[in-house]
Amino acid sequence: MKRYYLLATLGLCSKLYAQEVDTTTNRLEQVEVKAYFNKQPFLRLTSSAAVLSSQAIQSQQSPSLVSAMNRVPGLRMEERSPGSYRLALRGSMIRSPFGVRNVKIYLDDFPLTDAGGNTYLNLIDPYALGQINILKGPDGSIYGANSGGVVSLYSKGFDRSSKPEVNLQLTGGSYGLFQEQLNTILPFSQTQQLAINQSWTRSDGYRQNSALNKKNIQLNYNWHYAKTSELKFTGFYSDLGYQTPGGLTAVQMETDRRQARPKGGPNPGAAEQKAAIYDKTFFGGLSNQTHLSSKMTLFASVFGSSNQIKNPFITNYEKRDEKNIGTRLYLSYADLLSQNLKYEVQLGLEAQKGWYAIDNYDNAQGVATDPQAKDKLENSQQSFFARTQLEWLERLQLELSLGLNESKIGYRQYFPVEQEDKANIDFGSTWMPRAALSYLITPMFALRASISKGFSTPTVAEVRSSDNSINTLLKPETGTNHELGLRLHLWNRRVVLDAAAYTYQMNNAIIRQLRENGAEYFQNAGKINQKGLEVSILLYLITPQVSGVVRSLQFASNFSFNDYSFRIYQVGDKNYQGNKLPAVPKTVWVNSLNILFPNQFRFDLLSNLTAAIPLDDANSVYAKRYHLLQGKLSWTKSVGSRYQIRLFVGADNLLNEKYSLGNDINAFGGRYFNPAPLRNYYGGMSFNF
């Protein structure tokens, strides 16, 4: 273990600050980041936050966001098999069996999280993203129902380019990995620009029955049709198919970690039933921003999606037809109260409506046969919000915001017994306040504090889960988050420190449970104490220079401490009070190292040390701690004035750790584990012209 910790100290974790480098003066400039309707310097931001640049997203394997996302303290992303993701932000995986819960995700300011609360993050091609902004802690006052935070994905192509640009990247690797990615930017004029991102990814997968085939095309268009107005469009089509190998017991994993879930009792195996998920999705959004005056701005957007999903599973074959529409509107006004006091006010709303037809059939080795259940559900969410910000001498920043969230689900059963009338589950109206401040003690040292309410309604996938029943007893999760933090820049921002401590008291936490046949259901779990500490240090040991063996050297280390436990939780005669929350490691220490050598050789090293993870409510089973080490070497060469070529090679799990990622929580029969690949390799090239 000593060598693991030594290697871990050689890493650089995620950039909590997006920064630009002036190579002439070696001066680091802090970039303003869009948060709460406008761009703000990170040093004075009132919330805990992180930014992942395009370089950070592409610093390891390009087909997946897992490595990049896990650089952020407080955020955890898992990959059960290629294409099957889980993501949690300041929370556990107990509510994210096949996706994202408690986190609101936006794509180019359009909600990717649908009206039913689901987020199909695996539809997005990471290569199409230019930046990811992350706000940690409840932000329901502005962004609707959430308790973990907000993730904003920003596509390439919205920064106006002076000339056309085409980039083609090809990647190949272990287990049949192949990926082709094409990014094209077409500026029609000084006011109009179109970006096209297209990709195809396939993999045989590490385990049996874990193949992936994903095709994606995305269009981004922006038009400055007036000096004060801009129109933006984001749309994509994704054809995603990935097999699901299922969980293994500890004995099965030791015997053959590459096998899919075998036959057990009356249930056939995952490969025999051709267990998989197929998702064909259209998504689109159109927004308009107009500066009505030098002080007033109006923003309006409409968006929608259509998902056709097929999910052959061990015990059934599910077909889902999901449609969503929505709008987001707000009016912003900014002015001076005095020479030293600025203020701004925003008023707005976000509303979404979804329609979901969910049918389940018997599964005869990948073929849907006799019907088991048929239901139709409707979900509506509305969030009205108001916010004000006061700024005094660019030193003190005070924010007060208030949201009113309304949510309800309508449902009607059509099989096996047809329900005469539609029934409703009304989660009521909930006020979600937030108060926060940031104060610059010195020009490079800021303290911040906030208090905010978290609120997360059950998703459609939890109300109508894979056990084919409508759960009318689920209640929304609620809680209050208290947080203190600091940011410190030293030596002309060559050293950046960010730290935060928080406590979140959650009521009615929603817990995932599994039945004997593997079907899942959810229940409320009383109260949960969530206490955490996040610390990040970013060091520019060598700022960019034009001479020397090492042209630049960045080192950082991010650490998360999670003290999550059940405060009140009893199931029948079993009392789990005081137990650790499943799926949450006590500590996560993520590091990486970035070195630039002469002739544009670049080396990226990423280290992730994750503590043991409890896998059931009783804390009787743990996933072992692991140390994941990844490395990538790239070389960029300009050919003439118009062309550029880049070659890269990389390796994942350099230490050949035997670990499990994307574990099943409270799994029946001990099938907790989804073994991750051992040491594997990839390489490729990109052409830019």
UniProtKB/TrEMBL annotation:
Q: Does the keyword Acyltransferase apply?
A: no
Which Pfam family, any one, appears in the UniProt record? Plug
Q: Which Gene3D superfamilies match?
A: TonB-dependent receptor, beta-barrel domain (2.40.170.20), TonB-dependent receptor, plug domain (2.170.130.10)
Membrane topology reported for the UniProt record: Multi-pass membrane protein
Write down the SUPFAM superfamilies for this protein, in alphabetical order: Porins
Where in or outside the cell is it found? Cell outer membrane
Residue ranges occupied by any TonB-dependent receptor-like beta-barrel domain in the UniProt entry: 185-654
Tell me the superkingdom of the source.
Bacteria
- Which family, according to UniProt? Belongs to the TonB-dependent receptor family.
Matches recorded under PANTHER family: TONB-DEPENDENT OUTER MEMBRANE RECEPTOR, TONB-DEPENDENT RECEPTOR YNCD-RELATED
The protein's name is: Iron complex outermembrane receptor protein
Taxonomically, what lineage is the organism? Bacteria, Pseudomonadati, Bacteroidota, Sphingobacteriia, Sphingobacteriales
